[in-house]
């Protein structure tokens, strides 16, 4: 749906505050590695899931940016986001390749979008993953919770091998938050890293709520990064607070933490997502790396 007049005014105000916050840090741009753009019918189903998330996770989850696709893209541009993802993910077989085709078209039509693809444990996965890589995919998404599969599934051996060889990162939702799945947790991720030590993984939501275990994986493995998606916000701190004792470890991982928002599927403002980073007290340089330069380095991009 398009913006109403009041929404447009509120958006302009929010964009102005975000831009000022960036200027205060010495930045004029953000890279957001965790945003969702999907075919409309899929996004509608995702939003319907969050609309009924109260009984599923014990709290309400209002979608803050329930707008049509073009308005959502423009909103990110206005916020100063110069690169973002279109994280798609399947929940059943014979869906991933179709999603990859849509995501390739979206990236071709949206210059700021990092060409994103996905996969599911099925016999055809290695072939369509290699094809997506050949067609320019630069980021993959694996959602262990929604897909209800183990990342150690033998049908994914060829997928991980192809991604390791190509050195293309995968955003992997493997933590047990907001609700645990049959295969969530750090152990399966540790196993695929044992098998593929050069694999590049971006742990979504910093592994919430298994923060410590996933931070330790990032410390041990050169190719493991963490995204900040929803972590440190008031919404998440209420149920899955980040342990204060682990905050010094974040300083030590200054080059391996990436900003993610989960836009548009967040129950608070984008402004708050950024403020949750800047208020940690880890310094302006740490914030600049998280909000911008770490992702540029990971994707080998020049400053836009």
From TrEMBL:
The question of whether Lipid biosynthesis is a record keyword is answered with: no
UniProt keyword terms in alphabetical order: Lyase
The source's superkingdom equals Bacteria
Q: Which residues form the Amidohydrolase-related domain?
A: 31-299
Q: Which SUPFAM superfamilies match?
A: Metallo-dependent hydrolases
State a single Pfam family of this protein.
Answer: Amidohydro_2
Membrane keyword on record:
no
| InterPro entries per the UniProt record, alphabetical | ACMSD, Amidohydro-rel, Metal_Hydrolase
Under which name does UniProt file this protein?
Amidohydrolase
Per the UniProt entry, what species is this protein from, by scientific name?
A: Mycobacterium paraense
